[in-house]
Design brief:
A hairpin with a 5-residue loop joins strand 16 and strand 17. This protein is α+β, with helices and mostly antiparallel strands. It has 3 domains: about 200 residues, Phosphoenolpyruvate Carboxykinase, domain 1 (3-Layer(aba) Sandwich), CATH 3.40.449; about 270 residues, Alpha-Beta Complex (Phosphoenolpyruvate Carboxykinase, domain 3), CATH 3.90.228.20; about 80 residues, Phosphoenolpyruvate Carboxykinase, domain 2 (Beta Complex). Helix 2 runs antiparallel to helix 5 and helix 15 packs antiparallel against helix 16. The N terminus is likely disordered. The radius of gyration is 24 Å and the shape is globular. Bound molecules: oxalic acid and manganese (II) ion. The site of manganese (II) ion has 3 residues, from loops.
Length: about 650
């Protein structure tokens, strides 16, 4: 362990020294080319040196985030078989990666929150005692980069130097991760320059856990997608550190995203009085040129990218994209809640994205994309379920095997992804890069619910809005482990992403009332595009037609649309939702807003049971809303 005198690599208020686990047999730092490094930040240097001593790579490379570096890395990965270059005429500048079949999604069962006290992690997280976990990590990280290159990737979440932005440094032995981090965050020299001595940054160590040389010097060949059956995605929220081992995939490996921008940032946000949320962010402009900014939380793979890139069917309305997955929202000096998208690119789910469902995304994916686990066409392009109505006659599937329609297997993995810069998005808003963010007018909570939940409901106030967020549940998708289709509670769509106790998180949301004046707080809505009729049909056409729901919300915000009270909140008054030109039977419209008191009383019982796990940390106000809901359902009116 080194004894640094400069502040340690943490954004905490107290410098924490030597957090990297104690290292065995130090190697000569000169040999690791740590001299002449592009930073004079001793805290950063000593953390990098300690990590190199522990993991024992052949060399250390500081990444500058340049195009030349990206080109070098992708060429290297083409040679090693990690990337397949796509046909430059069909998909210029693009590549396909195929992961190992066991490394295809986030591993929630191996995601740990190591707070000092178990009760601070709460019942929704896997808690580990920090010192015991550190020791385990020391064991698995020892020598894990032998025979490999260790890359040091400085990055900024949010525009470099912005008041709402935060800095991090990821160490990784995966060139795929370096290339993907360059696309999805702001990496390189500018971020490194911002990490001046004493500037806090989040240290994030990642290894695929597949050393090429063993402890006694025997070598083995590399594989296209190295990983390890043993996986750890470990967070130390108090010291603000991340360690990830064994996976090269998405949220497990691109540590700026779920690990930093949600789990660690949620802990920072609680301490500092802001919100780090699993939300897309859009700018909506009405035909009268009024601008609204909406943030929306949906559980994983519920069509967030589709809403973030929505092409309205309603004439005169425009939706521009600011973010598709994460929003950081701070009380602004102007008395508003102001939000940035801390990411610089998209790591989106490919299946289900097509010209009819999301033409903006399809345009975005024309070039400079890294695809993972989609299918390969015979002419060197990509395909996935939902891209076109008719599948090609022959494909190579995501595992590299022959595929023909009707063979009984999906061609693309259901959690196949694209990684692309936000700059490629045709609907990106000018405000995307604004370091001060945008004022949020409304927050939407959604889920995939076949029954019960109306198309759109307006919460009566912030308090009921927080209750709305706390009650989100959704049918499971393939983005995480678990049985697809099963209903799971996913408060604020943050179940796998809150870095502390969920009950405290609800209380933190409620406390925003004290930080933002009432008139500056966003209004809160619940939406559900997925309600089905008794015959199993979707009742609402969704996609571009969701602009009709956005229109009603924006008209509510400007005070020009009518609403009617239901026990769940306000829904559009008769005739207030614009359904002109939609072939929507009156019966379906009525069903979209039906509130079945018996079903909701049963749901209230389930919610009570679910909330009980938060014990004394559940704010009484949340229980109060359950009582209120029951009263309204029974009485059919407001209290
Ligand atoms: C994601 C997720 O990858 O939520 O965005 O799982
Ligand atoms: Mn997500």
């Amino acid at each position: 362990m080194t004894t640094e005198t400069t502040p340690g690599p943490t954004t905490g208020t107290t410098p924490v020294q030597g957090r990297t686990p104690a290292a065995p047999a130090p190697r000569d730092p000169e040999e690791l080319r740590l001299t002449g490094t592009p930073t004079g930040n001793r805290a950063l240097l000593s953390w990098v040196r300690d990590t190199a001593r522990l993991t024992q790579p052949d060399e250390v490379v500081w990444c500058d985030g340049s195009q030349a570096e990206f080109d070098r890395l992708t060429a290297l990965m083409v040679r090693s078989g990690t990337l397949i270059p796509l046909n430059p005429e069909k998909r210029p500048g693009s590549f396909l990666a195929r992961s190992a079949p066991g490394d295809v999604a986030r591993v929630e069962s191996r995601t740990f929150i190591a707070s000092r006290r178990r009760e601070d992690a709460g019942p929704t997280n896997n808690w580990r005692e920090p010192e015991a976990l550190r020791e385990e990590l020391t064991g698995v990280f020892t020598g894990c980069m032998r025979g490999r290159t260790m890359y040091v990737v400085p990055f900024s979440m949010g525009p470099v130097g912005g008041p709402l932005s935060r800095l991090g440094v990821q160490i990784t032995d995966s060139p795929y991760v370096v290339a993907s981090m360059r696309t999805t965050t702001r990496t390189g020299s500018q971020a490194l320059a911002a990490i001046t001595p004493g500037t806090p940054f989040v240290p994030a160590v990642h290894s695929v856990g597949f050393p090429l040389v063993d402890a006694i010097g025997r070598s083995r060949a590399d594989v296209p997608w190295p990983c390890n059956d043993l996986k750890y995605v470990a967070h130390f929220p108090e010291t603000r550190e991340i360690f990830s081992f064994g996976s090269g995939y998405g949220g497990n490996a691109l540590l700026g995203k779920k690990c930093f921008a949600l789990r660690i940032a949620s802990a920072m946000a609680r301490e500092e009085g802001w919100l780090a949320e699993h939300m897309l962010l859009v700018k909506v402009t009405s035909p009268q040129q009024r601008v609204f900014h909406l943030a929306a939380a949906f559980p994983s793979a519920c069509g967030k990218t589709n809403l973030a890139m929505l092409r309205p069917t309603l004439p005169g309305w425009r939706v521009e994209t600011i973010g598709d997955d994460i929003a950081w929202m701070h009380p602004g000096a102007d008395g508003r809640l102001r939000a940035i998208n801390p990411e610089a690119g998209f790591f989106g789910v490919a299946p289900g994205t097509g010209w009819s469902t999301n033409p903006v995304a399809m345009e975005m994916l024309r070039e400079d994309v890294i695809f993972t686990n989609v299918a390969l066409t015979d002419d060197g392009d990509v395909w996935w379920e939902g891209m076109t109505d008719e599948p090609p006659a022959h494909l190579t599937d995501w595992r590299g095997e022959d595929w023909t329609p009707g063979c009984g297997r999906p061609a693309a993995h259901p959690n196949a992804r694209f990684t692309v810069s936000a700059k490629r998005c045709p609907s990106i808003a000018a405000e995307f890069d604004d370091p001060d963010g945008v004022p949020v007018d409304a927050i939407l909570f959604g889920g995939r619910r076949a029954s019960g939940v109306p198309l759109v409901t307006e919460a009566l106030d912030w308090s009921q809005g927080v209750f709305t967020g706390a009650t989100v549940s959704s049918e499971r998708t393939a983005a995480a482990e678990g049985a697809v289709g099963e209903l799971r509670h996913d408060p604020f769509a943050m179940l796998p992403f809150v870095g502390y106790h969920m009950g405290d998180y609800f209380a933190h949301w409620l406390s925003m009332r004290e930080r933002v004046p009432a008139q500056g707080l966003p209004r809160v809505y619940s939406v559900n595009w997925f309600r089905r009729g008794e015959d199993g049909r979707f009742l609402w056409p969704g996609f571009g037609e969701n602009s009709r729901v956005l229109e009603w919300i924006c008209r509510r915000l400007e005070g020009s649309a009518g609403a009617r009270f239901t026990p769940l909140g306000n829904v559009p008054a008769d005739g207030a939702l614009n359904v002109e030109g939609l072939d929507l039977p009156a019966q379906d419209l009525a069903e979209l807003f039906a509130v079945d008191p018996q079903a909701w009383l049963a749901e209230a019982d389930h919610l009570e049971e679910y909330f009980a796990r938060f014990g004394a940390r559940l704010p009484g106000e949340i229980t109060g809303h359950l009582d209120l809901l029951r009263y309204r359902l029974s009485a059919g009116r407001a209290l």
